[in-house]
Specification:
Elements lengths: L1 E3 L8 E2 L6 H14 L7 E7 L5 H22 L3 E13 L2 E4 L10 E4 L3 E4 L5 E2 L3 H22 L2 H4 L1 E12 L11 E9 L3 H9 L5 H21 L12 H6 L8 E7 L8
Parallel strand pairs: 3-10, 3-11
Antiparallel strand pairs: 1-2, 1-11, 4-5, 4-8, 4-9, 6-7, 9-10
Helix pairs in contact: 1-2, 5-6
The structure holds adenosine-5'-triphosphate (ATP).
Length: 268
């Protein structure tokens, strides 16, 4: 497993197959995930071939992050925290709400203050850790339904789990003070990377292949441009994935990319 942290400026790391997800989290994702508590947006991606462990790793990273966010909240009784959770899937450049049984594709709107907004996306205010686990189960069930209908969508779609954390100092609550911090962390399970290269290599014009390509290629371009510190046009608007994640990729946002690698001969 290989981790690249573009904006945190920590060294890249390679983890061998014996490493636990906890170790990957501690050394590669923790700082990025917990920056949400300081009001800094962040994204953690899992990228790699189908069955190389993206979903497994992201689930562990999400659970470790949530446990530490709740531990932080317990240690800071002087602040009031509100946690909101939403989940979406991007398949063939169509965005679907994973907390709703309605499969109608959602539209993206440009809000002058908030940037790109996913219209009508369900956002649940979390009561506690147990509530989050219930919502993760709902997402998984919604993904399974899509999978039955569309055959193997999990390896062909991008999943974004988004946690928004808002906090205010209790002593200033209701006094119009600007001590409120708000940011979100995105846990992103990308479509299988070989889907893009295989479809591109064989010159297939399948809608699905070209859409996965478009999102993954655009993400690659955006990250390369941002991490190279180059000025100029950043093509966020070229895919739904990068439009939705724009505010968590650019500016002072922090990013970690976890590349899961399969030892299978065909992937060498
Ligand atoms: N680090 C690990 N330790 C133990 N089992 C693992 C690990 N990583 C993955 N697995 C197991 O390997 C299988 C494939 O993993 P996973 O579903 O996470 O792959 P994926 O890359 O998300 O695949 P897809 O692209 O199809 O969604 C699963 O059964 C998972 O439980």
């Amino acid at each position: 497993m290989f981790i690249s942290q573009s904006t945190a400026r920590l060294p890249d790391r390679v983890f061998d197959p014996e490493c636990s997800t906890r170790q990957v989290y501690d050394e590669g994702a923790k700082e990025v995930a917990l920056s949400v508590l300081s009001g800094i947006n962040s994204s953690i991606f899992a990228y790699g071939q189908t069955s190389s462990g993206k979903t497994y790793t992201m689930l562990g990273i999400t659970e470790h992050s949530m446990a530490e966010i709740y531990a932080y909240i317990d240690q800071h009784p002087d602040r009031e925290f509100i946690l909101r959770f939403s989940a979406m899937e991007i398949y063939n450049e169509a965005v679907r709400d994973l907390l709703s049984s309605d499969t109608t594709p959602l539209r993206l709107l440009d809000d002058p203050e908030k940037g790109t907004v996913v219209e009508k996306l369900t956002e649940e205010t979390l009561r506690d850790k147990g509530h989050l686990l219930e919502l993760l189960a709902v997402c998984e069930a919604q993904r399974q339904i899509g999978e039955t209908a569309l055959n193997e969508t999990s390896s062909r779609s991008h999943q974004i789990l988004r946690l928004t954390v808002e906090s205010s100092a209790k002593q200033f609550l209701g006094k119009g003070n600007s001590s409120t911090l708000q940011a979100c962390v995105n846990f992103v399970d990308l479509a299988g990377s070989e889907r893009a290269s295989q479809t591109a290599a064989s010159g297939m014009r399948l809608k699905e292949g070209s859409h996965i390509n478009k999102s993954l290629l655009t993400l690659g371009k955006v990250i390369r441009q941002l991490s190279g510190g180059r000025n100029g046009h950043i093509p966020y608007r070229d895919s739904k994935l990068t439009r939705i994640l724009q505010s968590s990729l650019g500016g002072n946002a922090r990013t970690a990319i976890i590349c899961t690698m399969s030892p299978a001969h065909c992937h060498v």
